Known about the structure:
The protein has helices at 24-43, 53-78, 82-98, 109-126, 134-169, 282-287; strands spanning 2-7, 16-21, 172-174, 185-188, 190-196, 204-210, 215-222, 234-241, 246-253, 267-271, 274-281, 301-310, 314-322. By secondary structure, it is α+β, with helices and mostly antiparallel strands. The chain is elongated.
Amino acid sequence: xxxxxxxxxxxxxxxxxxxxxxxxxxxxxxxxxxxxxxxxxxxxxxxxxxxxxxxxxxxxxxxxxxxxxxxxxxxxxxxxxxxxxxxxxxxxxxxxxxxxxxxxxxxxxxxxxxxxxxxxxxxxxxxxxxxxxxxxxxxxxxxxxxxxxxxxxxxxxxxxxxxxxxxxxxxxxxxxxxxxxxxxxxxxxxxxxxxxxxxxxxxxxxxxxxxxxxxxxxxxxxxxxxxxxxxxxxxxxxxxxxxxxxxxxxxxxxxxxxxxxxxxxxxxxxxxxxxxxxxxxxxxxxxxxxxxxxxxxxxxxxxxxxxxxxxxxxxxxxxxxxx
Length: 323
C-alpha cells in the first residue's frame, strides 16, 4: 500500500513531495532494484565503437545522471535524509567504477569523480540553502549546480562540438583543417598531428609518426560520426610518403565478427615515395565479392595502418571522404 505525503522543512530538504512506502518489503525491493540497475549499467561490457571520442565523452557524462538519479531514488523511496542518500549512491557508483577491470572495462578516477559530482548536483538542488528570499536561494542553488557541472562540461565540450562539426562536414571524413580533427582518431603506438603544407595544394594534413624506436605498426582508427554509408559508392583515401616506401593497410569495419573461411576486408599494398589516392569500391564490399560482406548502414570504423614503420619515418594523410 502506498500513500503520498509531504516533507516539510526537516533540515535536509525543502518542500518536496515524496513517496512513503508503508510496506517495508516493497521499500527494500525498490531500493535494491535501484542499486542493482545502477551497478549493472557500470558492469555491462561496452562494444568496440565506444572508443569513438564523442561516444566516450557521452559515456563519461552519463556518470552524472546515473549517480544523481540513484541519489534521488534512494532519497525518495527510503525516507533517508538527502545527505545519507548521496553518500550511499556516490560510494556505490564510485566503487563500481574503480572495480570495472573485473568486468573487462577500464577504471577511471575521472569517472569516479563525475559520479560524486552527479550526486552533489542533486544535493544542491534539494538541500535547504541560506537566504532570506526565495530569489537569493534560487540564485545560490543555480550557482552551485553550475559550478559542479563546469569541469565535466569543459572536459567534454570540445570533443562534442567537434563531433557536431564532423556531422556537418560529412561525407568528408577527415581533411585536418582544424586541430580538433586529430581527436577523432584512435591512435595505437603512434601520433597524429595537424601540419601545414607549403608544397602541395592542400593547406593541411595529418602527420602520422611512431612513438617508439625500431619497427612498429602505426595504426590510427577513425570512428565516423555518421555510420550509414549506404548512399555512397566509393571511399577515397589520399596520403603521401615523404621519407621511404611503406606497406599500408586500409580497412573498413562494421563491427561484426567474420566466421572462417571468410576474411574481413583488409587492403594491404606497398607504396613508393610520393602522393597516392586509393579508391575503395563500397558496393563491392557490401556484396562481399572478395571478402566478408560489410553492412554499409552501420559502418563502425576506418583503419589506416602503416606496417613496419620506422621511428624516423612519417606519413601524411591528406583526406578521407566518400563519393
